[in-house]
Structure formats: C-alpha cells, structure tokens
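User: I'm writing a short report section on ligand binding and want a predicted complex to refer to. Could you take this sequence and zinc ion and write out the structure as tokens? A short remark afterwards would be nice.
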Amino acid sequence: MADVRRLIILILCALLIFESIILLNAGFFDKDVLDRINEGYKNYYNSQSDDETIEENIETNEPVEEEEDNNIDHEDERDKLDRLEAEERGLLILVNKQNHLDPDYKPDDLEPIRYFASDRSSATRYMRAEAAEQFHKLVEAAREEGYEIVMTTAYRSYGFQKILWDNYVAREGEEAANRFSARPGQSEHQTGLAVDISAPSVNYALTEDFANTDEGKWVAENAHKFGFIIRFPKEKEHITGYLYEPWHLRYVGEKVATRIYEQGLTLEEYLETP
Ligand SMILES: [Zn+2]
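Assistant: Sure. The structure tokens for the complex follow:
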C-alpha cells in the first residue's frame, strides 16, 4: 500500500516537472514576454480612454456646431428650393440690355388689371395671371391703409416697345434714351411680369418724386410681401443699366422678392449668387 502511494507521488512530481519544462520552453515565465503583455494591455486601456474622451467631446461641443451648420445648410437649401420653384413657374426670367426677348415672345396667361390710370393705353393693362392677382392684392392692401396706387403700364408687346423707343430716340437721341428706356426686346414689360405704378399725389406721373410720397414709401416697404421688387433701385445703374425707377415693379414671387428686399439686391445680383 505504501509503495502504491509513493508511486503516485512520484508520478505527480514527474508531471509537475514535465509541465514546468514545457512552460519554460514556451517562454511563459520570460520577463520580456510578461512586459510585452503588460505593455499591450496598457496601450489597449489608454486607447479606450482616448475614445471615451473623444466621445465626451462629441457630446459636449460638437452638437452645437453641427446645429449651426445645419441651420445654414437648411437656409441655403430653402433658398435654392425657393429659387428653383420660382424658376419653374417662369418668374425669374431675366431681361436687360444683355438678355433679350424674341420679337414674338408673348406670355400665354395674360389677365386684365383692374386698377389703372385711365389716360394710358388700354393695350398695356395686362399681366401674367399670378402677377395680376398679386398686384390686385397689393393695391387693395395699400387702399386699406389709405393709399391709392394704380398701374400706368404693365404688359407691352415688342411692337409697342418699338414705337416707344423710336419716339424717345427721335426726341432725345439714342444715348439718352438708352438710360431710361429699353430697346424693343430688352423691356421687362414684354414678360408680363412688370408694372409701372403711380399715385394721385404725383398726378399719376412716372417720376422719382413718387419715392418720397406716402404711397411710394409704402410700396418700397411692402411690395415684397406681394412678390414684387423695385427692379431698378437707386445707385444700381451700373448693374441694372437703368436709372432709379421707384415706380417700376417686377414680379418674382413672394419668397424671392423677400430675399431680394432683405438683402438689398438687384435681380441681376440675386441670379448671379450661386
Ligand atoms: Zn417700367
């Protein structure tokens, strides 16, 4: 019995020695190996900490910046959509000394204007349907505040503009006429989106004085709410090619008009902005 016990102890000792030899060969107790394992663990732990720090930064700082960026993006996006929408409705057509209309260009949705100065040609009392409707609203809103505003001229055909132009040139010469009148094909009135307005306080004349009347001031401050801009603003002749005309309104739709009004732009500048 004692021999058997001694034999078992011997076998166990032999196994223990055998295992130690294997582990030593595998480098298990090698200090370098242990150091490397420790180093690896430390690196892993530190990288975890860095990630947590970044996560904290994202939580505390970045959302604010992102929100601002998003607002700018959304605003830009909205502007682009507004412009696209107005373009699709044909409201942003650019007519000036560089961009002409064909002699036979005529809008197919002209509607009669209700409020007009009766001593002008009845052939010009039309605007495109949407512009006409909005013009009526503008006149009615002004009337509610006690101001009388009427159109003197709205749509002009190519032929009508040619007669006007030829008359101005005969009377004042081509150079002078070019600063205040448009050659045929270069007049915005041919689009059916432009309207010249006036008031009894200036005897229904088209004059710069209109800007100083109560009606003129009301129009300058409120026209954009109805989709109209003052197309040839003061001191923008170098851009528009025309002298200041506080009486000449151009319909571009409410959203674009508001943008142009708020930023003090001309239509040319608005359309050039990417
Ligand atoms: Zn005009």
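A remark for your report: The beta strands are 110-112, 126-128, 150-153, 194-198, 228-232, 245-251. The chain has a mean pLDDT of 85.
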